[in-house]
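ok, trying the design again with the full structure, not the truncated one.
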């Protein structure tokens, strides 16, 4: 692991300073801890979504292999429905 201190771009540094100054965070470390925690939760949520999609895809492939497919007449609408399901939180 690199022990060198990290530096933020000026635009992000200004944002951090603004957030601390406004009282939204006690200090820089509190903001960074919150940001990393949120990123970690998002990554875990994204992985859970990917696992659900993989399971649904595997189930669908198995059904197709058994000849249980469906006929789709409006491919765009069908994909829109899939994307809606995939992006639910």
């Amino acid at each position: 692991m690199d022990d060198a201190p990290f530096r933020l771009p000026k635009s992000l540094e200004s944002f951090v300073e603004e957030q601390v100054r406004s009282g939204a965070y006690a200090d820089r470390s509190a903001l960074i801890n919150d940001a990393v925690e949120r990123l970690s939760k998002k990554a875990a949520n994204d992985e859970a979504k990917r696992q659900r999609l993989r399971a649904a895809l595997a189930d669908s492939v198995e059904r197709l292999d058994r000849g249980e497919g469906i006929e789709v007449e409006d491919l765009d609408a069908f994909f829109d429905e899939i994307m809606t399901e995939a992006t639910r939180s």
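Keeping the full-length input from now on. The radius of gyration is 22 Å.
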